[in-house]
Write a structure and sequence with these properties.
The complex is a heterodimer of chains A (162) and B (498).
Chain A lengths: L8 H21 L3 H30 L1 H10 L1 H29 L1 H16 L4 H22 L8 H5 L3
Chain B lengths: L1 H11 L2 H19 L4 H9 L8 H26 L8 H12 L3 H34 L4 H18 L3 H16 L1 E2 L6 E2 L13 H20 L18 H10 L1 H16 L4 H16 L12 H24 L5 H12 L6 H6 L1 H29 L7 H18 L4 H19 L4 H24 L11 H28 L1
Helix pairs in contact in B: 1-16, 2-3, 2-4, 2-16, 3-4, 3-9, 3-14, 4-5, 4-6, 4-13, 4-14, 4-16, 5-6, 5-13, 6-10, 6-11, 6-13, 6-16, 7-8, 7-19, 7-20, 8-19, 9-17, 9-18, 11-12, 11-13, 12-13, 14-19, 17-18
Classes of the chains: A mainly alpha (162), B mainly alpha (498).
Chain lengths: 162, 498
């Protein structure tokens, strides 16, 4: 009988960890003896554990109980929905980081908050503006005025002296 | 010791320091009340505020948070059946049935009083143990220190649900600790040619990423308000708190048993408050007279876990301060705060910085009392915090967290590192790899490597002597036991099932 194997994200995670363990060991082999002793010791343990995790995950692929349970619960559709939400969460984070790099903290925080509240939370313009102004002012007063931190001004502003 | 206590009391009594303590208590209560946030996120967020402070002031602020978090957690456990922090879960068993019976005030009164008294008893035990701990830690050489760190890490892994993944997370934590300039061999390790990694990755962005950002990502995926369990009780009428206070004094045995269990369990590295509160709940439920009402709204079922929950803070300071081995995520972050302020945890800390330790002890003591008073008077308002929409909380916390990541070194690289560890932290939650073992391995990395290298020099390269020499042999045996117990437990369950 033809058996279809479901993709398991936890197997992908285990494989990434196994690769990392190999890199730790490989890197440690290039160090001087005193710098290499402990990384080699930990690297070997890490490799063994990661390999065991991969083996256990591969075994789960072939275990009929798990596959039946997975199909009965209809997880993939739910999973897809949740994965898209996860991707969105990190797209927001990446966009915020990019903004921070380009325009600095104060402007990035204001832009990020406003667009998040409008686009992701669906808040009204008035609510979004009030809330954005409140948090930006809080960050400015607490961190820049009271604590005296010189927050990053942004690559664009610094390069073009805007 | 007495001089240190007086000096610490005078220091703590200044207006500025009381203000820091109140700030810590308020933040601790709010973050404790909101399920899913907890003390680790609060400490990660407030870390940047401490950079310009004296070390003792930072300890006061963090002590305020740690003392109040567990108290805040009991509010949502009692009123919403949703524990604010994991150790408050045992409080739900009898706290929520009391709310359903219209006795929320009694439960809150008892929880606040038991928390405050439990905290005081736990700190009393800590003060008694410190002189003994000082002489014990001086007996530890590099091999024993290495094995102690291994034991701490192992017992923490053993307490996690997945032993294998806990160990893997610890290995990844150690790998991150290797990154940068190696003090022993004078070599750059795992920097991949990136200048930013030469000094290693600072602890602050890692902690902010793993806890504050990862938790916000989790909240984004979950959506809605934080607490979604509607309560059957009427939250606008919380009365009878004084009866709750009296109930604690009517049950001194329950209070004492809970506090003692909390303190003792807290001293074991890696076991933590959740085990302590569940242990004291089951102990009380098993050995109390007329125990048929446990689980249906017995006030002793609130007193025991709450007393234990706050008493464990005193106990868990022993491994954290004396050996540099934190027992929980909060303690790992607190350890980070100490290191940032130039205080290296270990045997000499207890001897050289006795005064600072007493500042912390007094801060914890006052924070439990302040927290309990605020809880008694404002629980009906505090519980409303849990209904804040996550769409407001997420961008606010992320914005402040990123400022915090940047503030210590003024490095934009730290901001990107926080983002990266936010992603890593989320993936660890998603795939059930415990973040706590990662963080503790990261914090212990340099101590472990130093002790390991020194020991190998002492043993002339023969690593088997870790298992055969003096104190390290005892610690090795304990490590093996800590690893075997969960395996045997699982095997027993498997045999019984089949």
């Amino acid at each position: 009988m033809m058996r279809t194997l479901q993709f398991r994200p936890s197997l992908a995670a285990a494989l990434v960890l196994l690769t990392l363990a190999v890199l730790v060991l490989w890197g440690a082999m290039g160090f001087d003896r005193s710098s290499a002793v402990f990384p080699l010791f930990i690297g070997k343990i890490f490799f063994g554990l990661a390999l065991l995790e991969v083996v256990l995950e591969v075994r789960k692929l072939y275990r009929p109980d798990d596959r039946l349970a997975a199909s009965a619960l209809d997880i993939p559709a739910e999973e897809r929905k949740s994965v898209w939400k996860e991707v969105k969460a990190f797209i927001w984070l990446a966009a915020f980081l990019l903004l921070l790099y380009l325009v600095g903290f104060v402007v990035a925080i204001a832009l990020y908050l406003f667009s998040f509240l409008r686009l992701s939370a669906g808040r009204s313009v008035k609510d979004s503006l009030i809330f954005t102004a409140g948090v930006t002012l809080f960050v400015y007063v607490v961190f820049m005025v009271l604590l005296g931190y010189d927050l990053y001004g942004g690559m664009l502003f610094e390069r073009f002296a805007l | 010791m007495f001089d240190s206590v007086i000096a610490a009391s005078i220091y703590l009594g200044s207006f500025e320091n009381i203000l820091y303590l109140c700030l810590g208590v308020t933040v601790g209560l709010v973050f404790g009340t909101i399920p899913g946030l907890g003390g680790a996120t609060a400490i990660a967020l407030l870390l940047p505020l401490t950079f310009g402070m004296e070390a003792e002031q930072a300890m006061i602020l963090m002590g305020g948070i740690m003392g109040a978090v567990a108290i805040g957690g009991s509010i949502s456990a009692i009123l919403l059946n949703t524990p604010g922090t994991a150790p408050n879960a045992a409080t739900c068993f009898d706290g929520y049935p009391l709310t359903q019976q219209g006795k929320a005030g009694i439960a809150i009164g008892a929880a606040a009083t038991a928390s405050a008294l439990g905290g005081i008893i736990g700190l009393g035990i800590l003060v008694m143990v410190i002189p003994v701990a000082k002489s014990i830690v001086l007996l530890f050489g590099p091999p024993a220190f290495f094995m102690m760190a291994v034991l701490g890490l192992t017992s923490l892994v053993a307490a996690s649900d997945n032993l294998l993944r806990g160990l893997i997370a610890a290995c990844v934590g150690l790998f991150v600790a290797f990154i940068g300039y190696d003090e022993i061999g004078g070599e750059l390790r795992y920097t991949a040619g990136i200048d930013y990694l030469w000094d290693g990755i600072s602890l602050v962005p890692i902690l902010i990423g793993l806890f504050a950002i990862a938790e916000m990502a989790k909240l984004f995926v979950k959506g809605g308000t934080i607490a979604q369990t509607p309560t059957d009780g009427d939250l606008t009428r919380i009365t009878g708190t004084l009866d709750g206070v009296k109930a604690v004094f009517k049950n001194p045995k329950t209070l004492l048993a809970g506090s003692t269990i909390g303190s003792l369990v807290g001293m074991v590295p890696g076991v933590g408050g959740t085990v302590a509160s569940f242990m004291s709940y089951s102990f009380t439920a098993q050995f109390s007279k007329n125990n048929e009402n446990f689980g249906k709204g017995d006030i002793r079922g609130v007193i025991a876990p709450e007393a234990s929950n706050n008493a464990k803070d005193g106990g868990s300071l022993i491994p954290t301060l004396a050996f540099g081995i934190p027992g929980s995520a909060e303690m790992a972050l607190f350890l980070g705060v100490l290191v940032l302020h130039g205080m290296t945890p270990g045997p000499m800390l207890l001897i050289e910085r006795e005064y600072s330790i007493f500042v912390l002890i007094l801060a914890l003591l006052l924070s439990t009392i302040f927290g309990a008073i605020i809880m008694l008077s404002a629980s009906r308002y505090l519980v409303k915090i849990t209904y804040i929409d996550s769409s407001i909380l997420i961008p606010t916390v992320i914005s402040i967290a990123m400022v915090g990541a940047y503030a210590l070194h003024g490095s934009i690289g730290d901001v990107f590192a926080a983002g990266f560890f936010g992603l890593l932290g989320y993936l660890m939650i998603r795939f059930d790899y415990p973040r706590i073992t990662f963080v503790i391995a990261l914090v212990l990395g340099s101590l472990m490597e130093r002790s390991f290298t020194q020991s190998l020099l002492m043993f002339q390269g023969d690593w088997t002597r870790f298992m055969t020499e003096g104190t390290s042999r005892i610690l090795f045996i304990l490590t093996v036991i800590a690893l075997l117990v969960p395996i045997l437990h699982k095997l027993r369950k498997y045999w019984r099932a089949s």
